[in-house]
């Protein structure tokens, strides 16, 4: 079994907050750090396939700017200044192509930066490149990328999860110490779980979606990824906050994520109530995963937490509701990729009508899964079916939010598995869309309710020797609780 996990030594072995401290103290330059990760990418990414584009010159130029500031004794631009990052290729950037891993957008250059990207640049974070994903962020394995699959660093025959498999694999392979993902139904947490990294989906509205190519707008959220809980917390504070360009971003203070992570690092969970969802103890979950999650609950209890069982009957209908709402929004969001407004234009030879060119463009530009979702969503929204599907799904959404609200009357945080099994083999589920959809069972509910969630490494399953993630869920705008409990769990392992 070939592995490309993080080397035991060297700069690429260090977590982001340590690298930031070394850069600020002058022990090492941001250029040296950035170059070390670029070298690691050059060494392993040919086989791993985490990146769609590497921007070495741009990253090093950003690093030099930080080094200049350090040399001049200036205040650091942020707590992570100088530490490089891998960016999911769903966020638009002016200095690199943005493809959403689709042929439709091959070579597309954006005239502006996504708000999250602008914040990263202002924070002095060099962007190493754009990472692979399932086309338009639809999928659970990164195999729906129109360019290439990404492999799991723990076992190159297996998937890194999806849709954000590129970012997760880059972190797990030591190609980057920080990453950005987006999570519509689990695309940050699920790959984090399968690669043994940390990934956080903030509360809906916590991070601006401006400049994020829309998948399903009422579910999408940008979030931080890294190899430690504190690193995700520091990154969350950098990208979070209100943005006048995104009407759904909330005008509240960014949660104190880093303080919460530092508090949690003591490992003490005395007085914290942690919910365990009855409906998540499901047959079909891999034995090694159940074992690891049981051990995680036992550990949390040893650390002082009280475990309470909570009941969320609506979770039974979450898969169906999600795939109606998600596909409906996709059918509307992706209408703009028609070769006229956006996207490659196909077959415009001067003899064809606009409709014919649009049909040729969409027929060639989109992959099979994207087409499937557009067709499903268009059907769900069509006259006569709207009430039966879309409206019904919205009702389930309300029930899910109510179940969570009731659960959080009895606990501070919910803990759960992030995925039903460890990483599966490349090719295993590509011909079975339902099996692929079912894989996200544990991560979907909180997107429907807009709640924040985290996947934090819980160890390896004894039956497959592959990483398992513990998922933590908090009430809306209580993202800090994830960092407190996540850091405590991490410290107690
Ligand atoms: N796997 C889910 C889907 O395919 C979630 C995707 C995501 O979070 N972007 O819709």
From TrEMBL:
<dbReference type="InterPro" id="IPR000120">
    <property type="entry name" value="Amidase"/>
</dbReference>
<dbReference type="InterPro" id="IPR023631">
    <property type="entry name" value="Amidase_dom"/>
</dbReference>
<feature type="domain" description="Amidase">
    <location>
        <begin position="32"/>
        <end position="482"/>
    </location>
</feature>
<feature type="active site" description="Charge relay system">
    <location>
        <position position="88"/>
    </location>
</feature>
<keyword id="KW-0648">Protein biosynthesis</keyword>
<comment type="function">
    <text>Allows the formation of correctly charged Gln-tRNA(Gln) through the transamidation of misacylated Glu-tRNA(Gln) in organisms which lack glutaminyl-tRNA synthetase. The reaction takes place in the presence of glutamine and ATP through an activated gamma-phospho-Glu-tRNA(Gln).</text>
</comment>
<feature type="active site" description="Acyl-ester intermediate">
    <location>
        <position position="187"/>
    </location>
</feature>
<feature type="region of interest" description="Disordered">
    <location>
        <begin position="143"/>
        <end position="168"/>
    </location>
</feature>
<keyword id="KW-0808">Transferase</keyword>
<keyword id="KW-0436">Ligase</keyword>
<dbReference type="InterPro" id="IPR036928">
    <property type="entry name" value="AS_sf"/>
</dbReference>
<dbReference type="GO" id="GO:0030956">
    <property type="term" value="C:glutamyl-tRNA(Gln) amidotransferase complex"/>
</dbReference>
<dbReference type="InterPro" id="IPR020556">
    <property type="entry name" value="Amidase_CS"/>
</dbReference>
<dbReference type="GO" id="GO:0005524">
    <property type="term" value="F:ATP binding"/>
</dbReference>
<dbReference type="GO" id="GO:0016740">
    <property type="term" value="F:transferase activity"/>
</dbReference>
<dbReference type="InterPro" id="IPR004412">
    <property type="entry name" value="GatA"/>
</dbReference>
<dbReference type="Pfam" id="PF01425">
    <property type="entry name" value="Amidase"/>
</dbReference>
<dbReference type="GO" id="GO:0050567">
    <property type="term" value="F:glutaminyl-tRNA synthase (glutamine-hydrolyzing) activity"/>
</dbReference>
<feature type="active site" description="Charge relay system">
    <location>
        <position position="163"/>
    </location>
</feature>
<protein>
    <recommendedName>
        <fullName>Glutamyl-tRNA(Gln) amidotransferase subunit A</fullName>
        <ecNumber>6.3.5.7</ecNumber>
    </recommendedName>
</protein>
<comment type="subunit">
    <text>Heterotrimer of A, B and C subunits.</text>
</comment>
<keyword id="KW-0547">Nucleotide-binding</keyword>
<dbReference type="GO" id="GO:0006412">
    <property type="term" value="P:translation"/>
</dbReference>
<keyword id="KW-0067">ATP-binding</keyword>
<comment type="similarity">
    <text>Belongs to the amidase family. GatA subfamily.</text>
</comment>
């Amino acid at each position: 079994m070939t592995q490309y996990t993080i080397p035991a030594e060297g700069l690429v072995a260090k977590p982001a907050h340590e690298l930031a401290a070394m850069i600020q103290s002058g022990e090492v330059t941001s250029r040296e750090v950035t170059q070390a990760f670029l070298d690691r990418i050059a060494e392993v990414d040919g086989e791993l396939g985490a990146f769609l584009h590497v921007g070495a010159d741009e990253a090093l130029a950003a690093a030099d700017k930080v080094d200049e500031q350090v040399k001049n004794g200036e205040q650091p631009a942020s707590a992570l200044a100088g530490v490089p990052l891998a960016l999911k290729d769903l966020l638009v950037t002016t200095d690199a192509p943005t493809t959403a891993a689709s042929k439709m957008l091959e070579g597309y250059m954006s005239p502006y930066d996504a708000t999250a990207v602008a914040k990263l640049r202002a924070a002095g974070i060099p962007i190493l490149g754009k990472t692979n994903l399932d086309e338009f962020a639809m999928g659970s394995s990164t195999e729906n990328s129109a360019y290439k699959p990404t492999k799991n660093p723990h076992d190159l025959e297996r998937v890194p999860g999806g849709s954000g498999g590129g970012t997760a694999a880059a972190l797990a392979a030591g190609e980057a110490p920080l990453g950005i993902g987006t999570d519509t139904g689990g695309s940050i947490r699920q790959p984090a779980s399968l690669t043994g990294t940390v990934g956080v989906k903030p509360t809906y509205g916590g991070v601006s979606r401006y400049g994020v190519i829309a998948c399903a707008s009422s579910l999408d959220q940008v979030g931080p990824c890294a190899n430690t809980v504190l690193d995700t917390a520091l990154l969350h504070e950098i990208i979070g906050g209100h943005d006048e360009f995104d009407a759904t971003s909330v005008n509240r203070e960014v949660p104190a994520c880093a303080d919460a992570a530092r508090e949690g690092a003591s490992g003490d969970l005395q007085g914290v109530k942690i919910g365990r969802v009855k409906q998540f103890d499901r047959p079909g979950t891999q034995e090694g995963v159940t074992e690891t999650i049981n051990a995680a609950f036992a550990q949390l209890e040893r650390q002082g937490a009280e475990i309470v069982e909570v009941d969320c009957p609506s979770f039974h209908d979450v898969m169906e509701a999600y795939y109606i709402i998600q596909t409906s929004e996709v059918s509307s969001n992706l209408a703009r990729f028609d070769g006229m407004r956006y996207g490659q234009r196909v077959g415009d030879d001067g003899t064809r009508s606009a409709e014919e060119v649009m049909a040729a463009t969409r027929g060639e530009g989109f992959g099979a899964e994207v087409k499937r979702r557009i067709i499903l969503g268009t059907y769900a929204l069509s006259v006569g079916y709207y009430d039966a599907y879309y409206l019904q799904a919205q009702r389930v959404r309300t029930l899910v939010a109510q179940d969570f609200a009731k659960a959080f009357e009895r606990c501070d945080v919910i803990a759960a598995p992030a995925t039903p099994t460890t990483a599966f083999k490349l090719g295993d589920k590509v011909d079975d869309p339902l099996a692929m959809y079912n894989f996200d069972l544990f991560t979907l509910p909180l997107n429907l309710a807009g709640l924040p969630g985290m996947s934090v490494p819980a160890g390896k399953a004894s039956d497959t020797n592959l990483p398992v993630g513990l998922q933590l869920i908090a009430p809306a705008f209580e993202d800090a609780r994830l960092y407190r409990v996540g850091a405590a769990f991490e410290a107690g392992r």
